[in-house]
Structures are given as C-alpha cells and as structure tokens.
Design goal:
- The protein is of the alpha+beta class.
- The protein has a domain of 134 residues: Helix hairpin bin (Helix Hairpins).
- The chain is built from 17 helices and 15 strands.
- The chain has a six-stranded antiparallel sheet, with helices on one face. Strands 13-14-3-15 form a four-stranded parallel sheet. A three-stranded antiparallel sheet has the order 10-11-12.
- Strand 10 and strand 11 form a beta hairpin.
- Helix 9 packs antiparallel against helix 11, helix 9 crosses helix 12 and helix 13 packs across helix 14.
C-alpha cells in the first residue's frame, strides 16, 4: 500500500502535510501530535477513529494515482478522485489498490442474508495496537483462519473429526471434493454453512412430521389390510348387485308407467272414433260440384245480361208509348203533331207485350240457375263435412296405429332388490378400520422418519460445531499453524528482542502469551509493561503483516523501550528482508535523548513537530 502524499487538516487540532517514505520518524515532545499523526493516517486509510474526532479531513494520494478523502463533520463525506462515493465504495477502492482480498461470508444466523466483511479489517488490526490488543480470542482466531494457506483434502479433514462414523463420512462426502482433489480452508466455512442449511431444512421437515404425528391417534388394529380389503370387496359386490337390481326395478316401473300412459292414450283416441266409419267422398266429386256451380253462375250471368237488355227496351217502348199520347212531335216538343198514331201505338204495345213475355222467361231461367247454384253450394257443404269427418277418422286411426306400433314393451319383472342400508353400516365400520390401520402404519413410518431426522439433525449439530471457527476441525488446523506462527514470531524476537518469546494457544479461540526476561513464565499480553507491550505489538504486527500483506507498520510510544530495545528496533528496521516486507513504517515517540540517539542519522524521513 504505497502512499504518495498525506494532507491532514484539524485532526485533534493538528495539521500535517507529508510525503511518506519507507521509514518515517516522528519524534517530539509530549502534546506535539505524534499519536494524532498515526491516528490520522490510519483514519485516512481505514476510516477508523475514536468518537472524539470531529470536523477533520484526511486526503491521501496513492502511488497509483488514486486520490481519496475522508471528511468527518456534521455529515461524513467520502471521495475517490474528487467524486463523492459511499464509505463502502471508498474502502473497496483502497483494498483494491493495496491488493487486499475482499472476502465475503454467509451468516446463517441472519437467515441467508449476505454480509460483506470489512475489506480493510486487516489494516485496522495491524495499524492499531489498541485494536490488536483488544481482539477477543475468537476474533483473533477468525482473523488468522482467513490467512492460513493450508491445502486440504478429504482425508485430511476427516482426520480432524473426533466422532468419525460411517454417517459422518457419508455426509461430508456429499459436500467436500473427493480424493485426491485439494481445497482451501475457506471450504471448511462453506461446509459449515451447507450443513447449517441442511439442518434448517431437516428441522423444518421434522416439525412437519411431528405435527402430523400429533394428529394421528390410531388404535391397535385387529385385522390385516388384506382381510379388510376382502370384506370391503364383498360388500362392494353386494352393493353393485343391489344397485343393479334397483336400477332394473326402476326401469321396469318406468316402462310400466309409460305403457299405461300409452294405452290410456289409445283408449282416448278410440273413444273419439264414430260408431260407423264415414265413407270417403267419391273421387272427382268436388270437381263436378265446382264445375256445375261455375257453369250455372256463368249461364246466370248471361241471362241477367239479356234480361237487362230486354228491361232497357221495355223502358224505351213505354216512354215512346207515353209520348204518343201528347199533341207534339216525338222529335221536338215545339212541333204540333196531328198524325194518327193508332197503328204505331199498336206496334209498340205489341213489342211491349213480347218483351215483357221474354223478360219473364229470362227471370224464370235466372231463378232456375240460382236454384242450381244453391244446390251446388249445399252439395259442397255436404262434401266438405264428409271430407272433414273422413279425414278426422283417418288421423285418429293413424294415431291409434302409431301408438300400438310403438307401445312400450315391458322387461322381465325383476326380483325385489336388497336394500342398500343393509350393507352401509358394515361398510362404514370397515372403512373406519381401514383408515385406522392406514394411520397406524403411517404413524409407524413417521416415527421411523422422525427418529431418522433427529439422528440426522444430531449429526448436523456435531458437524456444524466441529466446523465452526472454534470447532475441532479448524482448531486442529489452527494448532498446526499456531506452532508455525510461534516459530515465526520467536525467530523475529531472537534478532529484535532477545529473551522474549511468544506463544499462541487455543483457549476459546486463540490467545497470545509472552515470556520476557523479567518473567520466568508466559503471561497474557495485558499483564505486560508498556515497553514489553510495544515489543509484543511489533512482533505480532509483523506476523499479521506477513499473513495479510498489509505492508504497513505503526509503532507509537517507542520511548517506553529501553536503550537496548531501541537499538534492536533500529537494527531491525535496517534489515533488507524486514524492509522488503513493508511499504511504509511509521515510528512515533517522545524525543528523549536515548530515542534520538537510537535513530540518529538513520536513512528515514524525520517529521518535524
């Protein structure tokens, strides 16, 4: 994590502007701001700061050109390359620049929600002795496990289980890759999550089975299912026979009723028949009557026309006869006629008599024709009545014939059916016995399933416990590496602080003990003096830097070290292999004479107070 420039404004009232080198020394009097400088750099990189820090800004330019800024005030502001971003985005950008991994974890206790781990967690721990020294054993164990480079396989993991059974082996084989495939320690956490989810699903299934068991209260069955099925089959046969007989009886009664209705209809139709069947009209009778009528009406019409002509002549003759009695000319009333008209009168009177006689003959003939027409009308009525009676008779006889031809035939009269009620009670009893037997069998199966699931959940409980950070699998793996961590730290201690030894032990996680020249045994870190604590922090921080590749070292209050320890610290900081492990080292201390002498003329940046 190479830094180009750091600008700090108003961090606990202090301002700084520096371009850090590999080694950076800030030696000053009490209150000069040494601790504030380290805290401000740490805040600018990680965002870690105490609650009393207010109204401050830290801007950092990284070697790769990235520019970040954290502002803490009434509102907190985060920027990357001048653009406002979220705190999470800034942390991810810094982690990416430093080449730090950004792990994720599944937390089953949060119901499957994904929870992002702080990508700058390692920087916060290695850059702050306060954070480091306040890590709980479980937290330190979880941190160390993330950086263990162990390559595992199925057989290795199985050897860490204290309760290895065939079922445990089978459960693990369903998740872990088979031999000889290798995997990392992160697979252990993935397995724990897998078994946690499997246990959750198994518990859910178990609750359902237990609830179903609670609803089942069968009695000890007295019959086998085969016997019950046989008795039920026998009853069903009888029921089918009874149903068939009932159906036949119903069909017989329905056919009988239909036949009775049909016979009643036939009788009704026969009652409408006349005692003597009517005779059918003669063929062509209607045409003859109509022809006679038409002929008579035509002749009558001709006679009426002739009679009218005669009548008109009579009227003319009578008018002429009347005019003969007048003394005027028949041609004009103005002419006086004195001619003898006796002869003419006689002829006219003769014509009148002849025409009256002829007119009478015509009238006689007309009445004769009218009589003929009337007789034709009467004959037509008689014909129509005869035709209607005959047609009605024909329809009735046709209907009677049709009814007789379609008369319903009665099936054979069935025997009286067996009442269904005779078998219903027995059937209900057998069905109840069958349900009870099914419930009894189901309860037996569910009881076995419940026992099987409880055993599975017990296996999952053991597997989850064994695979936890403090469980026997990771503890076994950790035990091996703790000895390596101890050797690594003590090799560094041999050159930096002879007489000091560290010991990593598993005790509800990982605890660190230290033996000093002043103590004959190993004691907890919290029991060390200030100088001893600084040496312990340096050794532990160096180890954690190697694991996490953070490449930053912060040592504050180095004035608490004695002259020998200060000289050893300088020699350590000048070793090439040590320097190659870091991008920046920040050393802060009160500028006592022994501190100044220890770091005098060292190739480093001396930050003025």
């Amino acid at each position: 994590m190479e830094l180009e420039r750091i600008r700090i404004e108003n961090y606990r009232g202090k301002d700084f502007d520096l371009c850090p080198r590999k080694r950076n020394l800030f030696l000053g009097a009490n209150g000069a701001g040494k601790t504030s400088l380290c805290d401000a750099i740490r805040f600018g990189i990680t965002g870690l700061a105490s609650e009393d820090v207010r109204n401050t800004s830290v801007r950092i330019l990284y070697k790769n050109g990235m520019d970040t800024e954290r502002v803490r005030g009434r509102t907190n502001t985060f920027k990357v390359n001048g653009k406002r971003v979220t705190e999470e985005a800034l942390n991810l950008a810094v982690a990416d620049t430093a080449g730090l991994p950004v792990p994720r974890s599944e937390n089953p206790e949060e119901k499957g929600k994904r929870k992002r781990i702080d990508p700058l967690e390692s920087v916060k721990i290695t850059s702050s002795s306060e954070v480091l020294l306040h890590l709980k054993p479980g937290e330190l164990s979880a941190f160390l496990l993330k950086y263990i480079p162990e390559r595992l396989n199925f057989d290795i993991v199985m050897n860490y289980f204290s309760r290895m059974t065939e079922d445990i082996n089978l459960e693990c084989s369903l998740f872990f890759p088979p031999m000889p495939e290798e995997f990392g320690i992160e697979q252990i956490e993935a397995a724990r999550r897998y078994f946690y989810e499997e246990r959750t699903a198994a518990k859910r299934s178990l609750r359902g089975m237990e609830a179903e068991l609670g609803r089942l209260h069968p009695k000890e069955p007295s019959k086998t299912m085969e016997l019950i099925e046989q008795e039920l089959a026998s009853i069903l046969v009888r029921e089918a026979q009874a149903k068939t007989g009932l159906e036949r009886s119903r069909n017989y009664e329905e056919a009988k009723q239909r036949q009775q209705r049909q016979k009643a209809r036939i009788k009704e139709l026969e009652g409408q028949l006349p005692e003597t069947p009517p005779q059918a009209p003669e063929d062509g009778e209607w045409e003859k009557i109509e022809a006679s009528r038409n002929k008579a009406e035509q002749e009558k019409s001709n006679l009426i026309s002739k009679a009218q002509i005669i009548k008109n002549n009579l009227e003319l003759f009578r008018l002429t006869l009347d005019s003969l009695d007048k003394p005027v000319c028949p041609i004009s009333n103005k002419l006086i006629c004195s001619t003898d008209k006796s002869e003419v009168r006689g002829e006219i009177e003769k014509s009148i008599r002849e025409n009256e006689q002829l007119y009478g003959l015509y009238q006689t003939d007309i009445r004769t024709k009218e009589d003929v027409i009337q007789r034709c009308i009467e004959r037509r009525k008689e014909y129509d009545e005869q035709k209607r009676s005959f047609d009605q008779y024909e329809r009735l006889t046709a209907q009677i014939k049709l009814c007789r031809e379609n008369l319903t035939e009665l099936p054979e009269k069935p025997e009286s059916p067996v009442p269904a009620e005779d078998t219903a009670k027995k059937k209900q009893e057998l069905m109840a016995e069958k349900r009870n037997l099914e419930d009894f069998q189901k309860k037996a199966e569910l009881t076995k399933d419940v026992e099987r699931f409880r055993a599975r959940i017990e296996r999952y409980d053991y597997l989850i416990s064994a695979l936890e950070d403090k469980g026997e699998v990771k503890s076994g793996i950790m035990e091996r590496y703790l000895s390596m961590f101890t050797r690594t730290c003590n090799l560094r201690a041999a050159s930096f602080a002879p007489g000091y030894e560290l010991r990593f032990i598993q005790e509800d996680g990982v605890r660190i003990l230290m033996k000093t020249p002043a103590n004959h045994g190993f004691i907890p870190l919290e029991s060390l003096s200030s100088g001893e604590t600084i040496i312990a922090v340096c050794l532990i921080t160096d180890l954690l830097n190697q694991l996490s590749n953070t490449r930053l070292l912060f040592l504050d209050n180095v004035e608490a070290l004695d002259t020998e320890a200060l000289g050893n610290l300088r020699r350590l900081m000048e070793q090439p292999d040590f320097l190659d492990s870091y991008d920046h080292i920040f050393i802060c201390g009160v500028n006592h004479a022994d501190v100044r002498n220890a770091f005098k003329d060292m190739d480093a940046q001396y930050i003025p107070d």
